[in-house]
Design goal:
It contains seven helices and eight strands; from the N terminus they run E-E-H-E-E-E-E-H-H-H-H-E-E-H-H. It is of the alpha+beta class. The protein has a domain at 25-177: Roll (Ubiquitin Conjugating Enzyme), CATH 3.10.110. The strands form three sheets. A four-stranded antiparallel β-sheet has the order 3-4-5-6. A hairpin with a 3-residue loop joins strand 7 (223-224) and strand 8 (228-229). The radius of gyration is 32 Å and the shape is elongated.
Length: 308
């Protein structure tokens, strides 16, 4: 089974017995599933793919999150899985100079092969790279790390992409990212920051029609497009509710026709008048009077029936 990513074919399962002869069947099956999961739901600021010739070697890209010294940075590295994966942890390297780790040297942290005793077989590629990003943002010193100021980290981040595209390893692993302008990863953390995928576009020309529920106690929303939005509670009977529903399309058409005479971005356009408050309150008291009359009639009929 193969997958196409940005026009590039990646094999997520065993295409031939000679390619992954060093990997166990458990490792092949697990890593194939993890690549499919990486394609469907990649972690924020992380992307990874297995080598086309060896599924035990994965190249990854980490992007520096905003509001960090690594913002705007692009960091290429490799995960070196043992044949016994997922029962043993991988080795981890970062090639791109970052001011945090020594380039092309194994990094020691809780999810790497430096700590096989703390390894959890339930951890995946996504878990490892998310943990590496979290460790990268900390100041903890360990084997493979370096000390540098925030200004140095920002300087490394600024020239990280231009450095990557000159490296043959990066070109071979991620040809789709070897562009003059750095490309975004599939997940750049929009959801985590609360940014909607498709922000709603306000409609200044055709205001939404009035919506009325069919229950006895329903509320009609009176909307003013140009002077703000306000809601006036109107108690409607079932009969008047159906009548309002029948009148709503014609009212909406009349409103859209009147609003289409002028563009919303015309600076010389006069503000549209707000809905008449007197008419709204007159309708409110009329409907309330009808409801009270209906209740009084029902009480009188009930008493008359009881006496007879």
């Amino acid at each position: 089974m193969s997958h196409i990513v940005f026009g590039r074919v990646i094999h997520s399962s065993l295409p031939s017995t000679t390619n992954f002869i060093m990997a166990s069947k458990a490792a092949q099956k697990r890593l194939s599933k993890e690549y499919v999961a990486m394609q469907k739901e990649p972690p924020p600021f992380v992307w990874a793919a297995p080598d086309e010739k060896n599924i035990l070697t994965w190249n990854y890209i980490i992007r520096g999150p905003p509001d960090s010294p690594f913002a705007g940075g692009e960091y290429h590295g490799v995960l070196l899985f043992p044949p016994e994966y997922p029962f043993k942890p991988p080795g981890i390297k970062m090639f791109t100079p970052s001011g945090r780790f020594q380039p092309d040297r194994k990094i020691c942290f809780s999810m790497s092969d430096f700590h096989p005793g703390s390894w959890n077989p339930a951890w995946s590629v996504a878990t490892i790279l998310t943990g590496l990003l979290s460790f990268m943002l900390s100041d903890e010193m360990t084997t493979g790390s370096v000390t540098s100021s925030e200004s140095h980290k920002r300087a490394f981040a600024a020239r990280s992409h231009s450095w990557n595209i000159t490296q043959q390893r990066f070109k071979d692993a991620f040809p789709e990212y070897c562009t003059p302008v750095m490309r975004d990863l599939p997940n750049m953390g929009e959801k985590e920051r609360g940014k909607p995928d498709n922000p709603p576009i306000p409609n200044f020309v055709n205001p939404p029609p009035v919506s009325v529920s069919s229950s006895t106690s329903s509320f009609a929303s009176i909307t003013s497009t140009h002077s703000g939005t306000f809601s006036l509670p109107i108690i409607l009977s079932p009969r008047s509710s159906h009548r309002r529903l029948a009148q709503a399309p014609s009212q909406a058409n009349n409103t859209s026709n009147s609003n289409s005479l002028a563009k919303p971005d015309d600076p010389n356009r006069a503000a549209a008048p707000a809905p008449g408050w007197a008419a709204a309150w007159r309708h409110f008291f009329y409907e309330k009077w009808r409801l009270c009359a209906f209740i009084a009639l029902a009480v009188m009929l009930s008493r008359f029936t009881t006496r007879t």
